[in-house]
Amino acid sequence: AIVRRKKIRGGKLFRMDLSSDDDDVLAIAVMAISVCAAGGILGADRRSCRTAPQNVFAIRNNVWEGAEACADDGWYRKNLRLRRTTFNQIVDFLTKEAALSGHRIPAENAFADMRMRVAMTLAYLAQEGGFQATAALFGVAKSTVIKNVHEVLNTILLIGHKVICFPKSESDWQNIASKFEECCGFPDTGGAIDGSLFRIERPFEFDGWYCRKGFPAINMQATVDSQGRFMEYSLRPGACSDKNLWKMSSLGRQIMTIVPNMMHLIGDAGYTLATYLLTPYEIFDGMPKDERTYNYLHSRTRIAVEIAFGMLKGRWRILKGR
């Protein structure tokens, strides 16, 4: 069935465990994607985040100091949803990249040093309580959280392309294809692509933001490798279908120069069959066995991207919407 499907192409063209030390860079990549979607959520509603001066208050606590002094992972897992070792590597990575990009790095004796600022950002992304809950967790004013979170997000957005990118060499592409084939025998696959909706608050200008399910959303298209690591993404308003999102994305316009010859991506029936993008056969009663087998193997291979989206929303709960 696969051979037949490749003839149609013309002959040319997870378990994902973000808590393991080997996947620290992946945690950064997923965080960067979360930031992009969170940025869309924040930017969609143009109302001011300011609070009346008489209502600005903060109950100081030593929770963060206690977490830093303790060698246990418990606080980090509960509030930041990652291990302390992973958090340390993210801080080191962001500190280094911020210095290289010319961003100001807070002094070690500053009230909120780089570690605390990154922790605030991760807590904000990992929980559904927003800025107010994050401020209460760290015992600081809400305005402090907003300022620090925005600074860290801006740094992440500038360096996201360094960790969310397609392979640079032919051997890296072949390695991805080999791991996809090990899964269930589907050959020459360079990535799995799909779209997912992220619920947002209704924007002031809401035209085009309502998705097919009837709520305002951001539609995100992403491509992952066999391990569920994000290699590319594109964001559009919720009313944009997967097919149109593909056509408007940089990947859709430049696919022939990105994916090596004789390799392809795999996507669901929402995409159009092409030499570089394989989709399943149309399902109908009495369909041939080889087509049913092809669809089964195609689905087993494509599930990597669905798992990746599930892990993304499960890890960074702000993406579940409000």
UniProtKB/TrEMBL annotation:
Record lineage: Eukaryota, Sar, Rhizaria, Endomyxa, Phytomyxea
Cofactor requirements of the protein: a divalent metal cation
PANTHER family associated with the record: GH03217P-RELATED, PTHR22930
One GO CC term, this protein: nucleus
TM stretches of this protein: 25-44
InterPro entries associated with the record: HARBI1-like (IPR045249), HARBI1_dom (IPR027806)
This protein's record includes keyword Hydrolase: yes
Subcellular location: Nucleus
The keyword Transmembrane belongs to this UniProt entry's keyword annotation: yes
Keywords, comma-separated and alphabetical: Hydrolase, Membrane, Metal-binding, Nuclease, Nucleus, Transmembrane, Transmembrane helix
Coiled coil start-end: none
Name of the protein described by the UniProt record: DDE Tnp4 domain-containing protein
GO molecular function list: hydrolase activity; metal ion binding; nuclease activity
Domain DDE Tnp4 per the UniProt entry, residue ranges: 193-322
Family: Belongs to the HARBI1 family.
